[in-house]
UniProtKB/TrEMBL annotation:
Coiled-coil annotated spans: none
Keywords (A to Z) from UniProt: Membrane, Transmembrane, Transmembrane helix
Key word Zinc present: no
Source species taxonomy: Bacteria, Bacillati, Actinomycetota, Actinomycetes, Kitasatosporales
Organism field: Streptomyces nojiriensis
Highest taxon of source: Bacteria
Acyltransferase domain span: 18-348
Segments crossing the lipid bilayer: 21-41, 61-84, 104-124, 144-161, 168-187, 193-211, 223-241, 261-278, 290-318, 338-356, 377-401, 407-429
Descriptive protein name: Acyltransferase 3 domain-containing protein
Length: 442
């Protein structure tokens, strides 16, 4: 544990909601473990364990934990925006975006640039067309979808927080109802492309639950969990929704891409469940050693998330380089290797975190001129960032030299164009507001 993490733990205000920090770390850790488990690598390529063993898809009702992260994000964004608004004269939108994105975009863009350089070198050397290499260059950027969606949550926080303050639960109900309507238009009436609206509606609805928690308005978590779980089960049993709460290769309908009403109900049950555990978990977090561990983990969680697939691919590459056989996925030999692969991937992730964690560490930015147009500039910047990062999650890095493209909101985008949008957007966000030291709550 670093001295800075120890100092932060010791300086924690008495009124800080420590449980939120635990949920943030636990949700990202669960995602990492789930990705390591689901990746079924063999000599034929990279498959999905849940597709090979469909009975295991029920595990996604616990392992698909991303709704908890967006719920925590809503809580943190509400507290942070209100704290900044109390301290700042005039518009705060640009300052809020810049402050919230400091520790998110810097490590993300470093990850993108490092992997883009590796991908370019591999393709210039003529090795980009191999089955495993090509699959790896596609796979490694897929988790970036989460960061793109999270950027949208940050961008929409100010207007949706105002809506929440006026309407409370009705604001959440409006978003949930709109998501349900989208599914009706999609499945019952066959309206084309309408399903993509749920990328915003479903995740914004979960994010809105975080606002409700910030104001202490989730008072019946058991009822929320029961309603969410029952609704999700009924939708899967009698509706057009698959069992898995993560995407499966080749499936006609996914609960994730784009999100569905079933995934929103899944998020409701998860939020209710974690709220039920809040009181005992908060008491546990009062232990100094436990809290120091959570603070230290929070300081490197995003870096670990970005690089965990790189570590997993590195473990498989080492097996191949050493001439070790890769057992067929889901066989007894494959399961026997799972603990060893997990330990090796965790160790390699630790090495990568040690190399790149400095880009996640908070630091005062370079001075930037104050602008009357800071809000519009910041809005344009974050829009370019989220489009670029979402585009890169779809294109992968396997086609840097051949113009490979993917469709993003009905428009084709290539990996170089996506990288350029993300970098340009980050520059605009950085220049949209004066650099200042802002202590953000949550």
């Amino acid at each position: 544990m670093t001295a800075s993490a120890r100092a932060l733990a010791e300086a924690t205000p008495a009124d800080r909601d420590r449980y939120v920090d635990l949920l943030r770390v636990a949700s990202l850790g669960t995602v990492i473990a789930g990705h390591w488990l689901m990746a079924a690598v063999s000599g034929d390529g990279i498959g999905n364990l849940l597709a090979l063993v469909p009975a295991l898809q029920v595990l996604t009702w616990g392992l698909q934990i991303m709704p908890v992260f967006f719920f925590v994000g809503g809580f943190s964004h509400a507290l942070s925006y209100r704290s900044l608004a109390r301290r700042t004269d005039g518009p705060v939108y640009a300052a809020f975006l810049r402050a919230r994105l400091q520790r998110l975009l810097r490590p993300t863009l470093v990850f993108v640039l490092v992997w883009a350089a590796v991908a370019l070198a591999v393709q210039l050397a003529g090795h980009g067309g191999g089955t495993l290499t090509g699959a790896a260059l596609r796979l490694v950027t897929q988790p970036l979808w989460f960061i793109g969606i999270y950027l949208a949550m940050v961008a929409f926080t100010p207007p949706l927080l105002k809506l929440h303050e006026r309407a409370g639960w009705a604001a959440f109900a409006a978003l949930a109802g709109a998501a349900a309507l989208v599914d009706v238009l999609r499945f019952a009436l066959g309206v084309p492309y309408v399903e993509f609206l749920n990328f915003a509606l479903v995740w914004l609805a979960v994010h809105q639950l975080g606002f409700l928690r910030a104001d202490g308005r989730i008072r019946r978590p058991a009822a929320l969990a029961a309603a969410g779980l029952a609704s999700a089960a009924l939708l899967v049993a009698y509706g057009p929704y698959p069992l898995s709460m993560v995407g499966m290769p080749g499936e006609k309908v996914s609960n994730m891409a784009p999100p569905t009403l079933a995934l929103l109900c899944h998020g409701l049950w998860l939020v209710g469940a974690v709220q039920l555990a809040a009181r005992p978990a908060t008491a546990w977090l009062r232990r100094p050693r436990v809290w120091r561990g959570v603070v230290a983990a929070n300081g490197l969680a995003m870096t670990a998330f970005l690089w965990h697939l790189t570590a997993m691919l590195g473990v498989y590459a080492a097996q191949l380089a050493l001439g070790l056989d890769l057992p067929a996925p889901a066989t007894a030999a494959w399961w026997a290797q799972v603990p060893v692969r997990f330990l090796a991937a965790a160790a390699l992730t630790g090495v990568l975190v040690a190399l790149f964690r400095r880009f996640e560490a908070p630091r005062p930015g370079a001075p930037a001129p104050a602008r009357r147009t800071g809000g519009p500039v910041a809005a344009l910047g974050i829009t370019l960032c989220l489009l670029g990062i979402l585009g890169l999650s779809m294109t992968g890095l396997g086609g840097l030299l051949d113009g490979h493209s993917a469709t993003l909101i009905a428009l084709p985008v290539t990996a170089p164009a996506a990288i350029a949008m993300a970098l340009g957007g980050w520059y605009l966000v950085e220049r949209s507001a004066p650099a200042r030291r802002v202590r953000l709550r949550g």
